[in-house]
Amino acid sequence: MKKQTLATAALAALTTAVGLTAGAGVANAQQWTDGDKRFHVSGRVQYDVADTDADFCNAAGTAACESGVRSYMRRAFLGVDGRFSDHWRYNAKFDFSIGGSVNVDDFYLEYAGDSYSWIIGNNNAVSPLEDRDSSLNIPFNERSFLISAAGVGKRPGVAFITNGGNWSWGASLQSNDSASTSDSAANGTESWFAASRFTFAPIYQRTPEGVTLLHLGLYARYRDNGAGNGNVIDGLLSYSPGALSPKSNNNAGVGGADSDVFIDGEVAFQWNAFGADAEYGQISTSDSSLTAVQTGDADATGYYVDLFWSPTGESRNYSASDGSFGGITPANPFGAGGIGHVMLSARYEDLDMTDTAFGTQRNETSAWTIGATWVPIAHVKFQANYSDTQVDYSDNTTNRDNEIRALTVRTQFDW
Question: Left if phi > 0, otherwise alpha if psi is -120 to 50, otherwise beta: which for 313?
């Protein structure tokens, strides 16, 4: 059976399991309700074009890279979400992304109380600010070096989150394996992590002019690579900053650790049309005896600083219940007397992995990015980023410093 057929069958089965049909209760094009029950079809598409120019294609500098323009499907999700009752909810999404494979994205069951939730399944309910924000709503096409190198994201497990009027707290115990990992007990104990996050907004006010906000957050995670049989499924923990153009490679990965501790601090500011985000984190790694790639315990540190301004006047939407930012609805949509929402953005980021225990691959990777976003109507976005990445190696006898320049343009819509 083809993968697309499998996904269609899965969605149909979910519809049947919830007990809803187009003829039951109240229905529209993508949502059905029947008493307390709700069934909603959701999806997103992100199609990118990237013009990438890198000095070298590998760390040794033995392969030169020429400029190239590539187009590709960055993300394509299809899924359902809803509820069985006021308290029991579900979310199931499939990812039809780069490479043609079908993977699980959100896939969880939630029990929601008045001010708390228990979540079991594939989720990132407890995650740093930039990862907690949906890829639909982040102000740049790719997430920061710090977040990608730390290895956060959606994983199977259980999470608890609670909140008040201007704060939230969550804790989770999750597998570090993806939901689609295929293995057996012969592979030993899988990689896992325990995490917690606290957010607080001492200033949070909505007015007709926009949002005034000061957000503070702290995230902590302990991660263990598991034990037994040399961890043949996962390999050891490694750290690599994601490229700002998916059609290039930073070639800046380090690490061979048994476990690590990641501490991350967050701050976000919003004053009507102006805003800023920043995170600073440290990854403290414990060396493994299974490989000589890493020669001892080592620390990596990183940060990013973002600045935003909307000439059309809109503020970013903030959710105090989980300390995250959502999508922006234009005040004056295009085609209805306005031009939609426009935002200009700039970022500087740095990831320092020069600790001598990281060995010959140790390096510092930094980049600046400028961007422009246009949201003509709700759920449609066009976003352009230009970035310049510098990879500076500590061991210049083995590796060659690299510079990667990239222009990425995204067309996005969701429902």
Answer: left
